[in-house]
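Let us work through a complete example step by step.
Step 1: write down the sequence.
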Amino acid sequence: GRPRLTMPTVSLPAAPSPGVGTRRLRAKRAVNTAIVAASSSSPTPDALADKKVVVLGGGIIGNSCAYFLSRRGVPCTVVERVEIAAAASGKSGGFLAGGWGDGSVTQPLHRESFRLHEQLAAELGLKTYRKIPTLSVAGGARMALDPPVSWLDGDVASARLMDDATAQVTPLELTTRLHEEAMKLPGSRTVFGEVVNVTTTESDSSGGGTRVAAVTVRDETTGTTASLDADVVVVAMGPWSTRASQWFSDVQVPMTGVKSVSLVYDASNAVADEPAALFCAEDRNGCHLEVYPRSTGEVYICGCGGSEYIDEERLKPGGDLERADAVTPDKKRVDAASRSFKGLSPGVGGAGPRVSQSCMRPCPPDALPYLGAVPGVDGAYLACGHNCWGILWAPVTGKIVSELVVDGKSSIDLEAFDPGRFMSAAQKRGKKIKGVNVGEQW
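Step 2: predict the structure and record it as tokens.
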């Protein structure tokens, strides 16, 4: 065959056999559903011995918060409306890039969380975490040299190395494992239902203000509500976190849900054996494909173009996208992306995707997360709005929240992520390398 472009060698852990997947945790939707917990040797800090911590949201951010709090000996109640990893945490790509925030206010989040991902992969025994290189690819008349991976067997005009220090994890596996481990601490539990309110009362502190008192949860099966006593509430509900604007009167949490299509293709040995993430140039189908081959040999694709911008009214109670399982894919974008990938890789993409799905990226107006204490409300924290980096930033977010709750301060400067800010100037909110746009922007 023709000579092939080569890439620097990346040390890869052994991959499981193609087709090995992860199981999504499903549980009966019932208020006060407890998950029996195993013992933990980590002592609860004296100041937190009687604190009741409630985490709102059963996605990767909420479960990371619960996990890191459990490591500090603090049990949590996780409240989830649909199922663990029901939204983007079960449907996103899991691309990890530690250096892509360099020079920006998110650099510490990128760097520390990239490190934590490798640590968590070992602690949790993850099968899908691995380090992989990332290529920049453009479709068109076949290049003179064969691309660096053999499964790019179609019309590939160029392929070059972008970054040899990236990694990936399947978010569903990580989210499920974080949840399982968090629930092992005695006192931890998971409650299924819709959060309808966070009630506050007058603060005990000399500075005045209010403090959280309880979370009201509605069982959608029976229509009944229950009140969960709370001293600490962490709002980690992705785009639906905008509802916190109604719970905390002096705080606005503007949020756009960027609804996009993603595809999953069946496993192949070539993909399992020759891993490389691909960021593809915009093509004639209106796609800006991001291609993530997983350790199972499956291929995950996003950047399908035609993203829909979902405003707060559609995310709030009564809106058409008020819950995760109401988010469905746009068939036109599924078809367009399928054509694009088939052109690049007829060997893998020829049969079409096995899964077509859609989820939402939670985007604040300034493309920065809400991360920290809610001003004027003791015990309230926001951990949401992570844009396209929710999977990457989940571990550091959990670590930060655990520090805020247990130590009263974060090891990372959170000024830029202040939940009390409100910034109206929107900017492009896709992935960037050191401030330069990479891949689809929205």
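Step 3: interpret the result. The two ends are 40 Å apart (CA to CA).
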